[in-house]
Amino acid sequence: MELRDWALRILSADTLEEKLLDPGDLTDENPGPPVHFNEPIRPVGMGFHKRSKEQKLPPFQLHGSGENRAICLHRFAGHELLAVEIMAYALVAFPDAPKAFRKGVVHTLKEEQSHVKLYIKRMEELGLRFGDLPLYRHFWNHVPHLTSPIRYVSVMSLTFEMANLDFAPLYGKSFSHFGDTESAALMGKILEDEIRHVSFGYRWLLRFKNETEKPWDAWVSSLTPLLNPKRAKGFILYEEHRKMAGVDDMWIQQLKNS
Ligand SMILES: [Fe+2]
Ligand SMILES: [Fe+2]
User: Fold this and answer.
1) Chain Cα centroid distance, residue 103
2) Which of 57, 68, 232, 254 sits most deeply, having the most CB atoms within 10 A of its CB?
3) What is the model's pLDDT at position 201?
4) Biggest alpha carbon distance in the chain?
5) Measured distance CA(162)–CA(193) in Å, rounded
6) Which residues contact 250 (CB under 8 A, 6 or more apart)?
7) CA 228, CA 250: separation in Å to the nearest integer?
């Protein structure tokens, strides 16, 4: 299948199976003209909730309840599905981006599909079905500003995915504290993958930015007006996960101070 066709199918899919479709072997011979979406098509029952502000997740001290942990997993699955769509969007919006970059986005997208599936499996074990709770537009609010690959990696990889280098282990520790080793292991797997996704974004930021610009400055100047550096971290910042992703020390210091 052509990469562009797969990405368009994901964005136009009205079933979850189609959103999570394994495309088999992909080719990238006809990237076509840029295509822009304001919003993806969504399966019935998985449309975006009208309230754009996400409701607060159950606080950490209430994670002893399986129902509350499932609520958290539902939210995370929603984020993963958004990531699947935004990555498909990057493939159709930036047909002229380097082939190696597009290939990397494909690889990441497939891992996000697997994350959706892992979260669905675990939330079902805890008694919740995906789509039973509201889903939010979130990442799609930023799409009008994703006008170039450097903006894409700055927003997706280096802000949202980078923040997960803190949130995934924070939630993992909490689930583990309440004896839910399976959900904790799932968060560990997510963290492992997200470190690689951040690393991908960081390496391409270095390639895309002006030579004279510092990586941090290139990142900040590529953020959308809706974002600031604080959005790239949790209330605890795990330096070591960023180091594992290859992020430079100066960046980590600046993020700590922001
Ligand atoms: Fe993910
Ligand atoms: Fe990711």
Assistant:
1) 17
2) 232
3) 98
4) 53
5) 11
6) 214, 216
7) 17
| pLDDT single digits (tens) 197-227 | 999 999 999 999 999 999 999 999 999 999 9
Helix (H, G, I), strand (E, B) or coil at 116: helix
Ligand that lies nearest to the alpha carbon of residue 190, given by its number in the listed order: 1
Ion ligand 1 neighbours (CB, 5 A) are 80, 112, 115
Q: How far is the CA of 184 from the centre of ligand 2 (A)?
A: 17
Please report the sign of the dihedral spanned by the C-alpha atoms of residue 86, residue 92, residue 98, residue 102: positive
- 12 and 92 in contact (C-beta within 8 Å)? no
Token representation of residue 84: 């699947």
d(CA 38, CA 251): 32
Looking at residue 219, its amino acid is W
CA of 90 to the centre of ligand 2 (A): 14
Question: What is the whole-number distance in angstroms between the Cα of residue 157 and the centre of ligand 2?
Answer: 7
pLDDT above 70: residue 52: no
Give the pLDDT score at 53: 72
Q: Which two tokens stand for residue 141?
A: 């609010």
